Amino acid sequence: MNGLWIAHFDAGAAHGNGLAVFREGEVLGGDFAHTWTGTYEEEGQKLYARIRVAPYVPQDETAPRLADKPMMVTLRGRCTDNNAVLEGRADESDVPVNIEMHKAA
Questions:
Q1: 22, 25, 90, 99: least CB-packed within 10 angstroms?
Q2: For residue range 47-87, what is the model confidence (pLDDT) as tens digits?
Q3: Quick one: pLDDT at residue 65?
Q4: Among candidates 1, 4, 2, 30, which has minimal Cα distance to 105?
Q5: What is the pLDDT of residue 69?
Q6: Distance (Å) of CA 68 to CA 12, 19, 57, 77, 89
Q7: Structurally, how many domains does the chain consist of?
């Protein structure tokens, strides 16, 4: 799982693409609107992740928009050497989250 991954995500009505680095149990990444930080565990081909998704706030903006609050997401899925699929929900919400990832060469 260690390495750079290209991620496509759907979270309720939101969807997009980003990059994530998986390294020794830690996840770091983001897209143009959010940063992602968290942890992951592997059990064979099973994959579990807990990710904090926080809005990216440009330096010239003094306060984040109220609709864009950080959220925690709990995910489970499966992975191979080059592909991974995760699904779950945002904590304290019924927003479904689906992520499909491909390892960058």
A1: 25
A2: 999 999 998 876 666 554 544 688 999 999 999 999 999 99
A3: 52
A4: 4
A5: 81
A6: 14, 20, 10, 26, 17
A7: 1
What pLDDT digit, counting tens, does each position of 14-30 carry? 899 999 999 999 999 99
Distance between CA atoms of residues 20 and 9, nearest Å = 12
Q: How many CA atoms lie within 13 A of 58 on its CB side?
A: 3
Contact 21, 29 (CB under 8 A): yes
| CB-based contact 47:76 (threshold 8 Å) | yes
pTM of the model: 0.87
72: domain CATH number is 2.40.128.380
Range of the domain at 9: 3-103
Please state, as a whole number, how many other Cβ atoms lie within 10 Å of the Cβ of residue 83: 12
- Paired strand residues for 29: 20, 36
Angstrom distance (rounded) from CA 81 to CA 14: 27
